[in-house]
Design a protein that fits this description.
single chain; mainly alpha; DNA polymerase, domain 1; hpI Integrase, Chain A; 3-stranded antiparallel sheet; 13 helices
Length: about 300
């Protein structure tokens, strides 16, 4: 990413975060935005009586900043992210011996209320998968992308980042580059394999014709790789066609993948591996979705509910 406009210290921190942790451009931009916001607050806050210098920031200043964030109605999740960014930044300054201790380490992260993720029912997913017009090159591509997304639970960045060489139709697996540049093999299932095979044989050659060469599995009419924004638009278009009258995103399909696996008896640790979660606690949110579905069924069908 470009950090030309960042102060040198922040730019150096971002460079290290990119090179050692393999953070995505999206994460790096969020880090830079958080540090800029903190610097701006330091410059404008009347209680700060010293020049704005991120190296000499105190614990009290950070606590005042967090209090300001809450006063401005920041979400707890946003404050937690800001605090995580500051924690990583001051750990970097410690490693560089620019500070003697971190002003952040003893500050507690705000407790987050984990919302049950929005998902789709199995009939809604089937309607969505049937929405693309497979008589067209674009429709065949969209069908393949949706089938693969539901079959694997990939993040949208993982889906659009798949290269041709990473997809093995013979073995029915796709090699995914996830967060932190960690690779994992994910099974695709017969329906997704068949849809991708049809796309590669009938659709992709038509989309790429006369437009050069691309290593991306999924491409647009211009012959270049699919973008996040373009795929978000496609999902919402097909949701309307499928009669799903609420906004959904690629992550909604990821939630449906995990929820439906658990509803059909999958082990939580297997779902964790398939989703690429480092921590099992991240996956456990889906058990609440499954429980909610069980409660709904109980209310509908139990004679004394």
């Amino acid at each position: 990413m470009s950090v030309a406009n960042a102060v040198p210290l922040v730019a150096e921190f971002l460079d290290e975060a990119w090179s050692t942790k393999g953070l995505s451009e999206h994460s790096l931009m969020a880090y830079e935005s958080d540090l800029r916001q903190f610097s701006t607050w330091l410059a404008q806050d009347d209680s700060v009586n010293v020049p704005v210098d991120l190296v000499v920031v105190t614990k009290e200043q950070i606590q005042s900043y967090l209090a300001w964030c809450f006063a401005e109605k920041f979400k707890a999740s946003s404050v937690a992210r800001l605090l995580s960014c500051l924690r990583q930044f001051y750990r970097y300054l410690l490693r560089m011996k620019l500070v003697n201790d971190s002003p952040v380490e003893l500050i507690s992260t705000p407790k987050l209320v984990r919302n049950i993720p929005d998902t789709l029912s199995e009939p809604e997913v089937l309607a969505l998968l049937s929405a693309p017009n497979v008589e067209t090159a674009e429709g065949l591509r969209d069908k393949a992308m949706l089938e693969l997304l539901y079959a694997t639970g990939l993040r949208v960045s993982e889906l659009i980042g798949i290269e041709l060489s990473r997809c093995s139709l013979a073995n029915g697996v796709v090699r995914v580059l996830g967060k932190g540049s960690k690779e994992r093999l994910v099974p695709m299932g017969d329906e997704a394999v068949d849809s991708i095979k049809a796309y590669l044989e009938e659709s992709r050659p038509r989309l790429i014709l006369g437009k050069g060469v691309s290593n991306d599995l999924f491409i647009t009419q211009r012959g270049s790789g699919m973008t996040r924004q373009a795929f978000w638009y496609l999902i919402r278009k097909h949701a309307v066609q499928a009669g799903i009258n609420r906004k959904i995103s690629p992550h909604t399909i990821r939630h449906a993948f995990a929820t439906h696996l658990l509803n059909h008896g999958a082990d939580l640790r297997v779902v964790q591996l398939l989703l690429g979660h480092t921590d099992l606690s991240t996956t456990q949110i889906y058990t609440h979705v499954a429980k909610a579905r069980l409660q709904e069924l109980h209310q509908q069908h139990h004679p004394r509910a």
